[in-house]
């Protein structure tokens, strides 16, 4: 899989992911452990971030599944 899917893709920090998904920190990490949420990437040492496109795709899949 190509990590950067398009040039407008950007990294989101945890607080941004929480805001976009309305999930709390613990729920995000529980879903990651269960393989139900995109994993984060290590950037600049210990800092972790998610690709915006992967989070958006996850959200769209939740919307599609609700119909």
Automatic annotation (TrEMBL):
It holds the Pfam family Phage_AlpA. Signal peptide: none annotated. Gene3D superfamilies: 1.10.238.160. Coiled coil: none annotated. It comes from the Bacteria. Transmembrane segments: none annotated. PANTHER family: DNA-BINDING TRANSCRIPTIONAL ACTIVATOR ALPA. This is AlpA family phage regulatory protein. It comes from Motilimonas pumila.
């Amino acid at each position: 899989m190509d990590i950067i899917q398009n040039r407008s893709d950007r990294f989101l920090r945890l607080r941004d992911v929480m805001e976009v998904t309305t999930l709390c920190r613990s729920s995000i990490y529980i879903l990651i452990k269960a393989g139900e949420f995109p994993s984060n990437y290590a950037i600049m040492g210990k800092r972790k971030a998610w690709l915006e496109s992967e989070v958006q795709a996850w959200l769209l899949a939740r919307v599609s599944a609700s119909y």
